[in-house]
Amino acid sequence: MMNTSIQENEAVLQEILSACEAFRLLETKQFMQHGDTNVYEHCIAVARVSCLLADKMGLSVDRGSLIRGALLHDYFFYDWHVPDPKHRLHGFTHPKRALQNAMDDFALTTVEQNMILRHMFPLTPIPPRCLEGWVLCIADKVCSTLETGRFTQNSFARGLYAELGEMQ
After folding, report:
1. Could you tell me whether strands 37-38 and 32-34 are parallel, antiparallel, or unpaired per DSSP bridges?
2. d(CA 138, CA 119)
3. How far apart are alpha carbons 150 and 143 in whole angstroms?
4. Is the pLDDT of residue 119 over 50?
5. Model confidence over 9-32: pLDDT tens digits?
6. Burial 76-102, CB ≥16 within 10 A → b, else e
7. Whole-prediction pTM value?
8. Coil, helix or strand for 142?
9. Helix axes 110-118, 90-105, angle to 10 degrees
10. Coil vs helix vs strand at 42
11. How far apart are the first and last CA of the chain?
12. What is the pLDDT of residues 28-50, one digit of tens each?
């Protein structure tokens, strides 16, 4: 059974997810991210891990911005595994493309913009300016490691990647 904090986070996540899916977020399901995880699944897991980290560390964050920034941090709409000069330096360039796409579809706060643009620190040299951005950086690296190592089916990760989000 989930504790109250996780239930609250999941309710906020599902509300924001529904609003984002009215735009192009569902299109991210067709693009692979790491291992056998697509971009859509990755972004949901990053949102969940971001909330989990913020809660476990007792951080005071804007929960809505944290979740929205996490859901949109990889809003780039291409398969970076397919050789193409336009995304040859994907790790360095996709935050800017994701931000532009997100700004085309959503009215983003300055916190959300900073989160998306700076989530690849330290690969990109400028760090996030906000606490939510730092949490996203860490959560993204945790999820990327789980996905690349194909650890998404272990007991911890299973709830993060479950379709209904039932975390144990």
Report:
1. antiparallel
2. 9
3. 10
4. yes
5. 889 999 999 888 888 999 999 988
6. beeebeeeeeebeebeebbbebbbebb
7. 0.88
8. helix
9. 160
10. helix
11. 6
12. 999 888 778 899 999 999 999 99
Q: Which residue has the tokens 């900073």?
A: 114
Of 77, 53, 79, whose CA–CA distance to 143 is shortest? 53
Cα separation, 132 vs 130, whole angstroms: 5
- Identify the band that residue 111 occupies on the pLDDT scale cut at 50, 70 and 90: very high
Residue of 139 and 151 predicted with greater confidence: 139
- Find the mean pLDDT for residues 81-93: 77
List the structure tokens of 83: 């050789």
- Tokens representing residue 145 in the block: 């490691």
Which residues lie below 8 Å from residue 160, measured CB to CB, with a gap of 6+? 45, 48, 49, 143, 146, 152, 167
